[in-house]
TrEMBL record:
Keywords: Activator, DNA-binding, Transcription, Transcription regulation. This is Transcriptional regulator. Signal peptide: none annotated. It comes from Thalassotalea eurytherma. The keyword Transcription regulation applies.
Length: 263
């Protein structure tokens, strides 16, 4: 009803604004109630309730009390300009907040990546994980941890099992020429495993490992200590054999991708 009268406690109950805050709004002239003639108690009308709801909205938009007072009571204020200025401030704050959120997400992914890396390297010699974790702080290593952190424990365990199964089979062909059909068949399986892992990490944005990408992976098997140790843990000599076989596979199976891109 339009003629409702509210006590300060009732208005506080309806709106969730504390009695102390309502007293302060009265003191600064933001929301001045009527005073009863007999006891001077504060009384609020339906109009006061409507104004308070506006104040609540403006406070949620991070307006200062002085700005709110101008918006509510000043007759000659440029409301559009005031709101436009406040919008610009909010957008800036939104950008700053997003930067903080992104930083938190990266940290969370890195921490999750550490646990996933421990799962992947669970069969490595004692002390290996400690040596690996000393690389934290390196941009490339932290980026790798962040990528691994996007995978669930089940996805990591499945990936490890698939890699283990492939590696134990590959051990049986280490004495075979890297040019052989037998070896190249195993390299194709390796190529598919890598594609599957990267697709899990990067989602639909990942379009597959191309010629240059697979050459980079090949180089890492012998030039990157962690990757080399990972393969050598299955069998000494595997990293070098795998490197040569991957180079041949890239030239035979993936070079057409490079040509199609060039054309």
């Amino acid at each position: 009803m339009l003629n409702n009268i509210y006590s300060v406690s009732k208005l506080s109950e309806i709106t969730g604004v504390t009695i102390r805050t309502l007293h302060y709004y009265d003191k600064v002239g933001l929301l001045k109630p009527h005073r009863r003639a007999d006891n001077h108690y504060r009384e609020y009308t339906q109009e006061h309730l409507a104004l308070l709801k506006q104040i609540i909205i403006y406070r949620e938009l991070d307006f200062s009390l002085a700005q709110i007072k101008d918006l509510i009571y000043a007759k000659d204020l440029d409301f559009i300009q005031t709101l436009s200025n406040q919008k610009a401030l909010l957008l800036k704050r939104q950008e700053e907040t997003q930067v903080i959120i992104n930083s938190i997400e990266v940290t969370m992914n890195v921490l999750a990546g550490e646990k996933n890396l421990e799962l992947l390297f669970s069969d490595m010699p004692e002390g290996f994980n400690e040596k690996v974790m000393k690389l934290k702080g390196d941009d490339t290593f932290d980026s790798m941890l962040s990528s691994l952190g996007r995978l669930s424990k089940n996805e990591i365990e499945l990936s490890k099992k698939q890699t283990d199964d492939w590696a134990f089979d590959y051990k049986s062909v280490l004495s075979v020429s890297v040019n052989s059909e037998q070896v190249q068949k195993k390299i194709k399986e390796h190529y598919n495993l890598m594609n599957s892992l990267f697709r899990k990490i990067h989602g639909d944005d990942f379009k597959g490992i191309g010629y240059n990408g697979y050459l980079i992976l090949a180089d890492k098997t012998i030039s990157e200590p962690i990757t080399k140790a990972f393969y050598e843990n299955y069998q000494v000599g595997m990293a070098a054999h795998l490197y040569e076989a991957m180079i041949i596979f890239a030239d035979k199976e993936l070079s057409d991708m490079l040509k199609s891109i060039s054309n």
